[in-house]
Structure formats: C-alpha cells, structure tokens
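A quick word before the example. In earlier lectures we treated sequence and structure as two separate objects. From today on, think of them as two lines of the same record. Here is Cyclopropane-fatty-acyl-phospholipid synthase family protein written that way.
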Amino acid sequence: MADAALRLKSLVEQLLGVPLPVRIRAWDGSQAGPPGAPTLVVRNRRAVRRLLWKPGELGLARAWVAGDLDIEGDLYAGLDLMSGLIWERGEDARSLAQALRDPEVRAAVRGLVALAGPPLPPAPPREEVRRPRRHLHTKRTDKRAISHHYDVGNDFYEIVLGPSMVYSCAYWQAPESEGGTLEGAQRDKLELISRKLGLSPGGRLLDVGCGWGSMAIHAAREHGVSVVGITLSQEQAAYARKRVADEGLTDRVEIRVQDYRDVADGPYDAISSVGMAEHVGSERYLEYAEVLRRLLKPGGRLLNHQIARRPHRDESAYNVDEFIDSYVFPDGELAPVGTTVTQLERAGFEVRDVESIREHYALTLRRWVTNLEGEWTRAVRLAGAGRARVWRLYMAASALAFEHNRIGVNQVVAIRTPESGDSGMPLRSRTWN
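And the structure line, produced from the sequence above:
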C-alpha cells in the first residue's frame, strides 16, 4: 500500500464531515493534505487502532505517548489546528451514537477498521494511570497521585523548570522577545506573593505544596520570616532541604512531608498555596479552606494561586480532562474561579483581591517546552520516552488553552478577618504593602 495517507485523510474527513487542516504522513511514506501545513506523522497502523478504540482525546493521547503519532513543524500550530477536531467538538456518547446512524459515517468507520487492521484494542502505554473512576481524595490516594506527577526525578524537573525550580505560573514584566527571562519572571512572582501576603521579619509563613522550596527560601531570605513548607513528595522534600541548607536557612525554614490536613502547629501569620489547590478536589475543597483558615491567626492572609476552568452549563456533570487525568495529574480537578471564591467565603474567609494572570502562564509553559526540547535526549534518558512525550504534549496544549481563554489562573488574596473588622489591608490594595 502506497497511499495510506490519502486513504486515511479521506476516511477521517468523511467521518468528521470537515476537511483536515493538517498534512498527514503515513507509515508507508505517503503524504496527503495541505502543503506547508504542520504534519501529523502516523507512524503505524496501531495509531489508527488507538483512535478507533478510544475516539477523541484519550485515544490521541495514547498514540502520542506510545510514539505512534507525532507532529512535525510548528507543534503549537499543529495542536491548535487539531483542537477543533478533538478537544472542542464536545461529543459525548449519545451524540456519537447518533452520528453512527449516518450511513456515510458507518462506512468511514468500516474503512478505518480495514485500514487499521487487527488486533483491537492496543494496550494503553504503561505511563497511563489506571484506577477506579471515583476520585476519593483520601490522604493515601492524594499521596499516590502527587507521587505520580512530582516524583518523576528532580534532574528531569531541573531541565524543564530551569534554575528557579518553580513549577507554577511566572509573573512576566516583559516577554522573552523584549528581554524577559524565566528566572526573572519567577523571582518576580515570588516577590509579588510575598507582598500580597504582607510578609515582614519575625512572621510565620506556611507554604502549602512547597515544591522544591523556592517560595520558602525567597520568603525567609528576602523577608525575614520563619517558614514551614509542606509537600507529599519525598523527592521534592529532599531537594528542598538541600537547597535550604545550601542557603544557610535551616534555622528559618523547615520542610516537611506532610498532608495539609495534618498541620497542627498554627497559628501562622500568612499561608501561601501556589499550584496546590488543583489537587484538592471539589468534594474536599471546603474542608481545605476551613483547615487553612483555622491555621491562620486573626488578620492573617492567604494567597491561593490556582488554575481555573470556565463554567459549564451543567455544573452537576463530572468534568475531567481524560488526558490530564490519566497521564499528568491523577485526581486533579479544576473549578471556575467563582466557585473557588464562594468556597473560601463559605469557610469564613474575606476575599479581598482576585488577579487573573492567564497570559503569564502561556508564556511560562512555552518556555518550559523550549527547555524540554533543548535537552530532549537527556530528558528521555532520565524519565523515559513516554513520560517526556507526556510532558511535552501537556505543556504545549496547556499553553494554547491559556492563550485561547479555555482555562485561566488566578491569585486570590483572602483574610481571616478579626471580629473587630480591621482587615489590616491598605486602602489601595494593589499597592501591596
């Protein structure tokens, strides 16, 4: 067969009812599609079998992680062109069943089955997390989920994150094209959080989900506070403790492997939670907010830095991104920012400021992808080819999601306001003093 690409293109277009916006190169070397467009490389028939067995995002992800699919040319342009066919179609099982009543659709499926060949289905890549569908968010399951994502290897994360070792949205004064750097933007983010929290010498900060210790070190070194950083990742904790020791801050920074529900040595003057609340889960979010409020002294501030999804018409439906859930952040859940603010207020917080920094995360993710691609061979050696492909896909796709306003990220400042009502906040809060 020397025309696999043309047959594949024709059958997919017949199935979807729209022209394919990308070029295809198939396993037999044939090509079809718009000249000059990003090329979807279909390396083998197994890629087609994966998409037939699991149409949509998860089948595409399985083929990508296994190395059956790739994109040549501009990765972002390729993913952007394909997003309308995969991520934005929004087809559920009912609409798929209705589509299969169409004789042309059924004929296209039969043609793809013949092209793919036996057997069906291929086994998922070993990187996929397989477990019961219900997300329990117990201490045990949360620890296992965190370990899956963060215990990939500190050397691998050094490649992706760079010297700052901050795994959350940076705060860019200028993009790289205008002289900005990732390290400078991450330093500015840590300083912005410190100012929003009103950190001052002698205070106590709890850093929930402390990662590799960057926020804890910055707060202690630059603002003179005592910090307790907590994480569920053994690898992160070991790395953070070494950094603290190298900085000569062991008298002011303690790193613990501890669940936030087990912290019992409050009150703290301030709490930072940066990129951690996405792991809490909707069923546990009120508990999370109540625990953090109890750990704050009256007048203490919380900085909650969290990715948000856009609201759906039916918020009672269970909304989980299959690729992210299966390969990246098991048990992770995103909520609309309005839901987050409501839960914080239900817990007794007074929400004083919400700042969206959506565009900043797109810039950050693109830099991380560049870092990964720049040391691809070493990254594959450290984490394995499948895991490296997972990270490249999820970071590039996430950058596009932020750019197109499909998801956002917000910093919420909330206070445990004392009974007197004196919040201690400046009249013009954005001065952050």
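Notice the following. DSSP finds 17 helices and eleven strands in the chain. We will return to this example when we discuss secondary structure assignment.
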